From TrEMBL:
It comes from Teratosphaeria destructans. The keyword Thylakoid does not apply. SMART domains: PROF. GO terms for molecular function: actin monomer binding. Binds to actin and affects the structure of the cytoskeleton. At high concentrations, profilin prevents the polymerization of actin, whereas it enhances it at low concentrations. Occurs in many kinds of cells as a complex with monomeric actin in a 1:1 ratio. GO terms for biological process: mitotic actomyosin contractile ring assembly. This is Profilin. InterPro entries: PFN (IPR048278), PFN_euk (IPR005455), PFN_sf (IPR036140), Profilin_CS (IPR027310). Belongs to the profilin family. It is found in: Cytoplasm, Cytoskeleton. The lineage of its organism: Eukaryota, Fungi, Dikarya, Ascomycota, Pezizomycotina.
């Protein structure tokens, strides 16, 4: 399956995610993205730096995280996953061995359903070496 197919089918196609992107784990190469979803290089670097801090929850929670031009309050941050929320919408970011999954869910989706969707794809990618 292509990286774009993972975005279109395994993330957005589930109905739990409305827009998503997949980057390499360093965040400097976009492998796939849904139409109209832009994560700027500055935002990508902010995400990568959050992982470099090894889940320093206090730091990331105090500053929040920016994705697609929006600021999200960080609810969870560890060496694998970062969950952020803005009102009733949110983001789920998961790092695998070689990839960084960045997914946005709308107000109509339960955060747990969105998180499960992204985490399951991450588990699969890790299982096949990514």
């Amino acid at each position: 399956m292509s990286w774009q197919a993972y975005v279109d089918t395994s993330l957005v196609g589930t109905g739990n995610i409305d827009k998503a992107a997949i980057f390499n784990s360093e965040g400097n190469s976009v492998w796939a993205t849904s139409a109209g979803f832009t994560v700027s290089p500055t935002e990508t670097q902010e995400i990568v730096n959050a992982y470099k801090d090894k889940g320093d929850v206090k730091q990331v929670q105090s500053t929040g995280l920016h994705v697609g031009g929006e600021r999200f309050v960080v609810l969870k941050a560890d060496d694998r996953s970062i969950y952020g929320k803005k009102g009733r919408e949110g983001v789920v970011i998961v790092k695998t061995t070689q990839a960084l999954l960045v997914a946005h869910y709308p107000e109509t989706v339960q955060p747990g359903a969105a998180a499960n969707t992204v985490e399951q794809l991450a588990d699969y990618l890790i299982g096949v070496g990514y």
